Structure formats: structure tokens, C-alpha cells
């Protein structure tokens, strides 16, 4: 009988090798800022197996409609590997396919989604690669939606972490990957399925809320997990990790034990007022487009900088970018967000009652927007 060889990798943190992991590549990342808290071979290209389906799901959510009715092809019903047991000719909603994709890791679901959204496996891979480019990824390439081995299908632990952070901004995606068990009702064919999530982190780790497992003989065990504690969300990624469950416990414990969330600006929070020239009104209120925060240690120095002009020219459009807000840790830039106009300001025409009413209405609208 052949014995499995478990290679332990010591992760260096603050120049001390104390965190033993089995993973060949790994990264621990702060969800909000994408700051890397722990890493090993994080930028080395590797196969990702079924963690591919994180990108498959987000492309489907952005390009498709959850209530779409998908007819399962023979090709989808016979694809090799893990399955949600789709039947050729069966009709099923895209929503149900996404549960089968992320809980059962169904390669049949991945193929059905790809054919529905992209017209073919190849067409959908183009959409996946387009999304990777949009996210600024340089070391990621997709040839299929399921993660079966292909030499041109690869990513890195770091870039898979970036993909996951982006995906976890989608509420529907978050709900799906945090579901432990789901019953899918058939459409007219009486086929009901009860799906159980393969991601054991949801039960092994108290604060886990996602994301996806993966395995092929060539890629080894791959795992992406997410956990949230005290409003701090962390993303852990391991590629080719024989002891991945324990790796992720170690990584997440390290993150929560050593870091806390520092918030520089809440989403839609008021930043300051900027003067407007040539407009109906002489000022516009500016707001944070999204949350600005970062995971930091107790002894790290944080600083927030707002880069806004003293004055802008009319017209100003509601939601228009007027500047940025940046957060620094020990003098190093870790994250930046857009600061936008809370309401529009047209060019100056008159001082009529209508103009005054417009200004007051925009002020009220901006307060409503920032309260939701």
C-alpha cells in the first residue's frame, strides 16, 4: 500500500516560521481592503479544480436571470466528475443550477450554465476571462466552467482570493455559498433534489460563511473559505493542500487573533462639502461610495486621507466621482475608494423658486440615499 506524503510548509510571519500548513500555495486576505495577511507561493500559477466555479457563479449571476429556465443538454448530463445528477432534456431554473454548482460542485450544472449563458463551453470561458481581465488579473486563465484539468486553466492563490472577494460582494452568491443544505424542486418532471454542501468549513469553523471546495488528482485538494468575526471578514485560499481543513482553521485563527477591523469611512457616509462654480448652487456634499476599512494589528499606525478639490465646475452629476479617500497602514497605501457627489448641480440659469426647490430636494434625496 502506498503511503500519502504530507508536505508541511512553514509560513513565515514577522520573520518567524511558526504556522505549519500542508498547502503548496496559500493566502489569507482581508475581504474589504484585499490586504494580504499571510501568504506562501501566493503568486505561483496552479490548477484550481472546482474552485473555478466561484467565477462560473459570478459570471452567471451578472449575465443571466435567476428565473431563466434552462434545458439540460446531453453533453451537460454526461460530463465527468462531481454531479447534481441532471437528466438530458430536463428543465431547471438557473437559480437551482447555481445551488447545484456551489453545493454539490456539479460539473453538469457548470456545463448547463455555460451553454445557457455563453452558448458553449468555449463561449462561456471567454466571458470568464473577460471578467478576470476586468478584475485586473494577470495570472489567471479559464478554459472551462467546472475546473477539470487543462494546462491552460490556472490561477494563483492570490488571484483566486481577489475573485472570491469580488464574488462575496454579491448578496445572492453569499447566500448560496453559506447554505448547508438545499432542496431543489423539479419543474414539471417531478425531480426533487436535496443538496448538501461539500464545504465542511461551514460546520467545522464557527464563523465560516463560504466558499468552495475543489479536487482533481493533478491539482490536489483546493479550498477557498470565508469567515466573519467582530465585523472582520477574512478570505483564505489554499491550492494543493492535503490537510486543507486544518490549514484553513490555522490561517483564519491567525487572522482573527492578530487583526481587527479599522474603518476610515462607512459606505455612503458624508465626507465634506466642495464648492461649485457656475452652478445653480455654490456647493455640493460628498459621500463615500463604499466602505473604507482594513484589517490591522494593534501596534500598526493607521491614517486616512481625503483627496478632494476645493472647487469643481458645474454641471455636477449625482454619483459623479469628485475625489478619493485612502487608508494607510504604517505609511503604506492599503485601500482607496471613490468619493462622489451626493446630488446633481446644474449650470446656473437663475435664482428662481424652482432652483431653490431643486436644491432642497437634492439635499433631501442625498440624506435618504445615505440612510439606506
| Low-confidence spans | 1-6, 14-18
How far apart are the termini?
Answer: 61 Å
Shape: globular
Provide mean pLDDT, rounded. 92
CATH superfamily of the largest domain: DD-peptidase/beta-lactamase superfamily
What is the strand content? Answer: 25-35%
SS-based class: alpha+beta
**Rg, nearest Å:** 24 Å
Strands of the biggest beta sheet: in what spatial order? 16-18-19-14-13-17
| Oligomer kind | single chain
Elements, N to C (H/E): EEEEHEHEHHHHHEEHEEEHEEEEEEEEH
**According to CATH, what is the topology of the largest domain?**
Beta-lactamase
CATH architecture of the largest domain: 3-Layer(aba) Sandwich
Tally the structural domains.
Answer: 2
Major β-sheet, in short? Answer: 6 strands, mixed
Number of distinct beta strands? 19
The amount of helix comes to 25-40%
Q: At the first level of CATH, what is the class of the largest domain?
A: Alpha Beta
Count of individual helical segments = 10
Amino acid at each position: 500500500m502506498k503511503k500519502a506524503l504530507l508536505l508541511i510548509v512553514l509560513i513565515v510571519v514577522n520573520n518567524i516560521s511558526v504556522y505549519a500548513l500542508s498547502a503548496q500555495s496559500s493566502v489569507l486576505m482581508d475581504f474589504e481592503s484585499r490586504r494580504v495577511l499571510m501568504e506562501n507561493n501566493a503568486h505561483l500559477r496552479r490548477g484550481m479544480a472546482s474552485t473555478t466555479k466561484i467565477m462560473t457563479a459570478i459570471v452567471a449571476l451578472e449575465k443571466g436571470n435567476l428565473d431563466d429556465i434552462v434545458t439540460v443538454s446531453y453533453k451537460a448530463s454526461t460530463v465527468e466528475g462531481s454531479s447534481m445528477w441532471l437528466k438530458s432534456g430536463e428543465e431547471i431554473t438557473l437559480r437551482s443550477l447555481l445551488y447545484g454548482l456551489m453545493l454539490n460542485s456539479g460539473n453538469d450544472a457548470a456545463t448547463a450554465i455555460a451553454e445557457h449563458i455563453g452558448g458553449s463551453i468555449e463561449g462561456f470561458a471567454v466571458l470568464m476571462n473577460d471578467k478576470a481581465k476586468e478584475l485586473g488579473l494577470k495570472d489567471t486563465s479559464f478554459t472551462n466552467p467546472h475546473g477539470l484539468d487543462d494546462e491552460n486553466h490556472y490561477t494563483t492563490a492570490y488571484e483566486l482570493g481577489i475573485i472570491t472577494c469580488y464574488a462575496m460582494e454579491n448578496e445572492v452568491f453569499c447566500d448560496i455559498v453559506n447554505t448547508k443544505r438545499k432542496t431543489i424542486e423539479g419543474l414539471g418532471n417531478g425531480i426533487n433534489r436535496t443538496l448538501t454542501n461539500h464545504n465542511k468549513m461551514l460546520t467545522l469553523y464557527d464563523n465560516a460563511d463560504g466558499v468552495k471546495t475543489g479536487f482533481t488528482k493533478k491539482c490536489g485538494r483546493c479550498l477557498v473559505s470565508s469567515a466573519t468575526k467582530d465585523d472582520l471578514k477574512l478570505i483564505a485560499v489554499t491550492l494543493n493542500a492535503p490537510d486543507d481543513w486544518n490549514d484553513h482553521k490555522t490561517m483564519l485563527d491567525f487572522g482573527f487573533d492578530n487583526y481587527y477591523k479599522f474603518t476610515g469611512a462607512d459606505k455612503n457616509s458624508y465626507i465634506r462639502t466642495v464648492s461649485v462654480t457656475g452652478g445653480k448652487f455654490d456647493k455640493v456634499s460628498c459621500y463615500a461610495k463604499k466602505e473604507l476599512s482594513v484589517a490591522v494589528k494593534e501596534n500598526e499606525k493607521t491614517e486616512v486621507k481625503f483627496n478632494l478639490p476645493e472647487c469643481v465646475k458645474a454641471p455636477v452629476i449625482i454619483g459623479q466621482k469628485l475625489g478619493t479617500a485612502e487608508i494607510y497602514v504604517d505609511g503604506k497605501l492599503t485601500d482607496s475608494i471613490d468619493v462622489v457627489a451626493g446630488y446633481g448641480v446644474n449650470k446656473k440659469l437663475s435664482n428662481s423658486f424652482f432652483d431653490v426647490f431643486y436644491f432642497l430636494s437634492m439635499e433631501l434625496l442625498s440624506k435618504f440615499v445615505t440612510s439606506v
